[in-house]
Amino acid sequence: MTETDQYNFAYLDEHTKRMIRRALLKALAIPGYQVPFASREMPMPYGWGTGGVQVTASVLTPNDSLKVIDQGADDTTNAVSIRRFFQKTAGVSTTTRTTEASVIQTRHRIPEDPLREGQILVYQVPIPEPLRFLEPRETETRKMHALEEYGLMHVKLYEDIARHGEIATAYAYPVKVEGRYVMDPSPIPKFDNPKMEMAAIQLFGAGREQRIYAVPPHTRVVSLDFEDHPFEARKGGLSCALCGSEESYLDEVIVDDAGGRMFVCSDTDHCEGRRSQACTEAEG
Amino acid sequence: MYVAVKGGERAIKNAHAWLAEERRGDPSVADLSVAQIREQLALAVDRVMAEGSLYDPDLAALAIKQARGDLIEAIFLIRAYRTTLPRLGASRPVDTGVMACDRRISATFKDVPGGQVLGPTFDYTHRLLDFMLAAEGEVMPAPQAEPCDAPMPRITGFLDRDGLIGQEAPSDDPPPDLTREPLEFPADRALRLQALTRGDEGFVLGMAYSTQRGYGRNHPFVGELRVGMVAVEMEIPELGFAVEIGEVVLTECETVNQFTGSKTEPPQFTRGYGLAFGHSERKAISMALVDRALRWEELGEDNVGAPAQDAEFVLAHADNIQASGFLEHIKLPHYVDFQSELELVRRIRAEAAATSAVRAVAE
């Protein structure tokens, strides 16, 4: 008996999957709204992607091709662990190629290459509530969303500008979805925010906090800003030391004891793709 | 030269192999059997069952062995296993009033029908290391008394009879299930008790202790603490009656708390309730104190802003599996977020430096 036979396809039982799928449908029907769901204990710790794993398990079919990234990379330890989990429990094929994957589970990044219709991007979310650090009470924040009362958030952003001259939020930068709900995009760098208006389905799972939310394809996703301080998805003006890309998001790597640094693409698939293309062009 | 962090898969595999070796420890020392853990580390087993929300001493012992004695890790193993189990049905409410008590004490009355039964307790032991245990000395059998068949009625029942203690509204509504529905606020008492009984013993203890030190003080007396075996019965639809399907050991604590009365209620005593799998006195008493503190609203008391009165605060942070998972996730790579922060701080610092340079020139 293989490990795939010992568990239901993709680990979760069908009743649980149905419950999660209903939450997903509701989430897609009300873009940006946080749907409570009865999150299960998973065989990996809360905070390590249990929400994303439950969402992926619920949407996965045997013909899917799964890609898992953490910090943009396929080979980070937790991405490896989650990919192996689905290899074991669902037996689906896996890939590191963004273009070949039908389901991509991610933590902290959106792939550089644009996603297309038919693909699903599943985000792991630690704190789904964008207002949480302004108001710790769930009873209060739910009321604020219901009343579309987002003044507190604007005050916070304004105070940032007053103090630092700019909005001092570099990741998990709040967005407004389809003109209604303010949503936490999960801790992606704000560099990735503009990519959220995409052709693929975006699903967000927060296991510990028991919330699911979603952004349907081609939905308006606007990063909060002010007319005189427009949102800017900037990054340091450097290029990748491996592939030379000037457009991609870069990780800083310390290379010697003197604090010497180099910058490389955080999206490993994008970087490898560019390098092999450069190779082919050089040979051709 | 930068070497891309490859080989995560092999590193994980090797780390786990090393872990397995460390778990076993020195192979020249005999392997610990699950039965030994179940029998000799019984209170650890009880805690794992209580917070793992699964009554199975053998599995709890196995989890403790696998977790190298890390009880929260063992509780996690049990929870992850439990969640995959099919739900066949619900038992009838267990009747702790007819518990076969190993221990039953009341701090409110000197003597009570059924008597004070100390049972196997650490209370009144002198906490002196017993070096005989290190020398693997055998234990003398404890003296035995005739089994006591006298019923042990609940102490709060006596207060109830005199109308001195607040009445609890009976309800046949099925209680909410924390493990099948998301926790939403406001949470009713059944749900709060459910969260507390599987909550971290240390956290619930800390919350209870804070009420004793004045943060939402509720003057508790241990009306009764009982530990023992109760029968679990289940209605079988095909049979039309309930059959006993097993027995569980429970610890139950009912506290009697002062209550000065409110606009609608005359002064009377009120209850706090604690119940946990196994022999878990500290947990059951702590739970009762926190339960009582969380009842301020229904009893018409003032919210003095104490942490233990705040249901959202207590319930959202009591679960050690959620807490430790989220706490430890900060070990995972965060270099993308950190990089964006790094850029932000560098930019703001550069701008600040430029501004002060301009100001210096101007002066």
Automatic annotation (TrEMBL), chain A:
GO biological process, one term: organic phosphonate catabolic process
Record key words, sorted: 4Fe-4S, Iron, Iron-sulfur, Lyase, Metal-binding, S-adenosyl-L-methionine
Broad EC category: lyase
GO molecular function: 4 iron, 4 sulfur cluster binding; alpha-D-ribose 1-methylphosphonate 5-phosphate C-P-lyase activity; metal ion binding
One Pfam family cited in the UniProt record for this chain: PhnJ
Source organism, top-level taxon: Bacteria
Catalytic activity annotation: alpha-D-ribose 1-methylphosphonate 5-phosphate + AH2 + S-adenosyl-L-methionine = alpha-D-ribose 1,2-cyclic phosphate 5-phosphate + methane + 5'-deoxyadenosine + L-methionine + A + H(+)
EC number: 4.7.1.1
Function recorded in the entry: Catalyzes the breakage of the C-P bond in alpha-D-ribose 1-methylphosphonate 5-phosphate (PRPn) forming alpha-D-ribose.
Family stated for the protein in its record: Belongs to the PhnJ family.
The protein's name: Alpha-D-ribose 1-methylphosphonate 5-phosphate C-P lyase
Source organism of this protein record: Rhodovulum steppense
Lineage: Bacteria, Pseudomonadati, Pseudomonadota, Alphaproteobacteria, Rhodobacterales
UniProtKB/TrEMBL annotation, chain B:
Matching InterPro entries: PhnI
Origin superkingdom: Bacteria
Pfam families xref list: PhnI (PF05861)
GO biological-process terms attached to the record: organic phosphonate metabolic process
Designated name of the protein: Alpha-D-ribose 1-methylphosphonate 5-triphosphate synthase subunit PhnI
Species this protein is from: Rhodovulum steppense
Taxonomic classification: Bacteria, Pseudomonadati, Pseudomonadota, Alphaproteobacteria, Rhodobacterales
